[in-house]
């Protein structure tokens, strides 16, 4: 298609650099540097999409990231499809494929537009009121249907093939916004020697110079000066200029997140990341974020062909595209006149300038007169008319009277400018209402930041640039960089941005949109107030005004003003909704960046893990660790493998990788005293070379962790923790050491990963281990259960523990981690000669349950004391203090009837209870039954030839032999309460 | 049985061969070293420095090196001592007077060497610390984060960094450094 609206000689794009792209399957010509919006307009296409609720035809309103209408899908492949892309932001590259959204079967003929006929039913609060009843219909009917109909784009279902990058950066000065003011600030700071980052969301810096034709700076047009300034900045080593980069989040302590779009404008991004997240910590932030033009609220203000004044000028002066051939202007602000003048000079006919204000500045009316443009001051556009494109406007005096019609193909509008205080507000700065100019402006900064230029309410370019230079110099000085040349920025001419109107422009005919993206009209806002919503927070939620992805950049001020008018209150009394990040939508890819796939989270593997992988182990996740769960052989399922492993350990022996156990080395002259305080047991009494099972409580007396503690030397303990508990136990101990016991001379060091741990358990354990151990007599007499020694195993230094979590003779061999796999392989080969197997966590769980050994977090749940668990023997009677001693004396914790750990057996030995199942005393009581406990652990025990279970039961220890009941959905299972030890109750095998 | 008694375990370092290189950065595994986590009050600093033959620095981010041995300030009472020659640091520390905690972490930690013009940028892909030369001069070290992993960074020259992490975090840290290095070569 020819670019018939491209004006020869206008704009800054090069006519020789042609591109071709697709919109709804049709090929369009464009120029390099075009956005999809400018290229569509060049081809005379204004209709770009359908609206969210009413499916109204929508055009291109803006030329920036605030665009609420022209939202398109961009998809070169199904997996890289991006919905809701603003056509005003997406740059065209050769072969770009774009589609309109929210229409079926076609953009020009959309069946969904019948919603418009149902408009009375879709008024504010429609969903809240309509889908309330019957309740059951919500899940089954309303929600699925509403979800189907809602939303604009369609998300891709395939994994994103693009990659994204991330960068942390630090600087003296971050300047957000590359308009004239931001550039001046950056130059001033950089000249002084400060490190500067300047970011701008557009492809090129320049800000308002992109559309203005009247500004002259230092002898050049504003735009040319801006490009020179950027070149100057880019040439400096202490400056980084980031274009296509949006500062979207302002966090505490001047931590600002930027999203850089790296490849969306390229036909072939090659190896580049699609986007890059910058997390910048700046000593000072200069916000030069400018202002956003807003619409006027009148009937049909959403018709394709209606366009903001700055946008019409941007398309003309930057892209060389005329918005229309016969245009009218409706404004309440001086700045729209420039659009009329520029368009008139470029050859478009300007039918009329309708100014809502009664008084028009003299120089503007004189220029209009020179160009032969009629001005109707004190008038308003009552309604814009047309179907898929504006065809005419009806104009009347503000006070009413005769309507006059003007045929137009485009209407340029301006309701004035709203300062972009978004980032300032995110920094927790409070905005203040400026009654003179009817707008919210930044108040005092809360963080080390400063607002300059239009976002600070400075409309005058010369004053804004002076502010920028001052802010840049001050920021550099504050960072220790004084001096340097003052940037030479002489503003010789600039335009007026005075005027503006918040709220509707008189009596409305037709639909007058306040929030284009969410289809909220002025009438909806007034209705919300009538229905009792008096706070803007309520109005917003009831109408969804400002809740679309543009976050009310255009609609907030109008919504507020209309609500205030309806209430008869001043605007600031209605309140202001909070500006939240992100400033514009940010992809998940950017936020996640490298953190996907293997880098999503840390996967921790022991040094023995490779052997388990090579030998077919099935793994389970325990915290961040992968642990071998069982080692199936010859097609065994888990049940068969675990049965075999359980049997083999008790008949011969088994090898288990216990490396993931948390290990903390507690060292210092007060190590014993500290251990006494942290554990319920009398640890200071533990002899060197001995082990003790320890229980750690919280202050409240409940079990927090358990583990085996070895005394390596008088002043050195080797403490083990549960695998999952390792980090929090270290923090718990460190917390007490630093806050409660700082007088103790003792230090804690995590050694979890220093040691690989091979557990060898079973009647043959000693025979398997013995030949590899040097320097220790392993006989039961010399090295009984709960002994430890520093020695050599397989020729490497080791800490050898005689300990058991199976109830069998057992050794846990700690060797320096890098030797773990080799030691494991040596012992595994040796074990095989004795019929030993390797076993995983599932077998470990069964074997320990056969012995009634608890697993903290499974058999305890944060409400279980050592006494409840049957571990009262582990609580020292004579100690004066330990963490939890006072908690354990609380009346509730010593009362009768507490839940206690017991064993349960089913009458059918093959019946395995479900873990978590509830237990009742009387199965015939009415529902809801009184539950007296629950099953904590339950397994088939091959060694016992029956199922076994552990349970927490109220008053459990007094119920030995009683029959209780476990109600299940299909039956009730009778169980007998037993001691929680099912195998070798006397513990003889431990000492074998 | 006699054979078994002679069996000596081998050291295995599965990450030792890890390497990634492009025109801006090389990331590779460091050779094994001996390492000590040292905790001590101020009165033990002098005797420990003399026993270890390397001065324990007393200011944040400082390191000091003598021969193959470097001591890094990690916290107000904490040092990481690394001996590239794998000397027995525990034995050396044992000789010192005073109250302190010396714990062997030679196998707990492993290290990567990140070198090249893009080395700092590589680290900055996942590390929030200020790595600019003015803030992180040659010879400085700090315990910090690389995405979700705790690391100790030690700047050995303008373009060379030593990155310590816990052993099981090594594949994750290497993966992050590889992605960071790819991006560092681009911009």
Automatic annotation (TrEMBL), chain A:
Residue span(s) of domain FAD/NAD(P)-binding: 172-431
Matching InterPro entries: 2Fe-2S-bd_N, BFD-like_2Fe2S-bd_dom_sf, FAD/NAD-bd_sf, FAD/NAD-binding_dom, GcvT/YgfZ/DmdA, GcvT/YgfZ_C, GcvT_C, GCVT_N
Residues spanning the signal sequence: none
Ranges for domain GCVT N-terminal: 611-879
All copies of domain Aminomethyltransferase C-terminal, residue ranges: 899-984
SUPFAM superfamilies: Aminomethyltransferase beta-barrel domain, FAD/NAD(P)-binding domain, Folate-binding domain
Sorted UniProt keywords: Oxidoreductase
Matching Gene3D superfamilies: 2Fe-2S iron-sulphur cluster binding domain, sarcosine oxidase, alpha subunit, N-terminal domain, BFD-like [2Fe-2S]-binding domain, FAD/NAD(P)-binding domain, Probable tRNA modification gtpase trme, domain 1
Keyword Oxidoreductase appears in the UniProt entry: yes
Biological process (GO), any one: tetrahydrofolate metabolic process
Residues of the SoxA A3 domain: 509-591
GO molecular function, one term: sarcosine oxidase activity
Family statement: Belongs to the GcvT family.
PANTHER family on file: AMINOMETHYLTRANSFERASE, AMINOMETHYLTRANSFERASE, MITOCHONDRIAL
Protein name (database record): Sarcosine oxidase subunit alpha
Species this chain originates from: Zhengella mangrovi
From TrEMBL, chain B:
NCBIfam families listed in its UniProt record: soxG
Top-level lineage group: Bacteria
InterPro entries: SoxG (IPR007375), SoxG_het (IPR006280), TrmE/GcvT-like (IPR027266)
SUPFAM superfamilies membership: Folate-binding domain (SSF103025)
Gene Ontology biological process terms, A to Z: sarcosine catabolic process
Name assigned to this protein: Sarcosine oxidase subunit gamma
Any GO molecular function: sarcosine oxidase activity
Lineage, top ranks: Bacteria, Pseudomonadati, Pseudomonadota, Alphaproteobacteria, Hyphomicrobiales
Pfam families assigned to the protein according to its UniProt record, in alphabetical order: SoxG
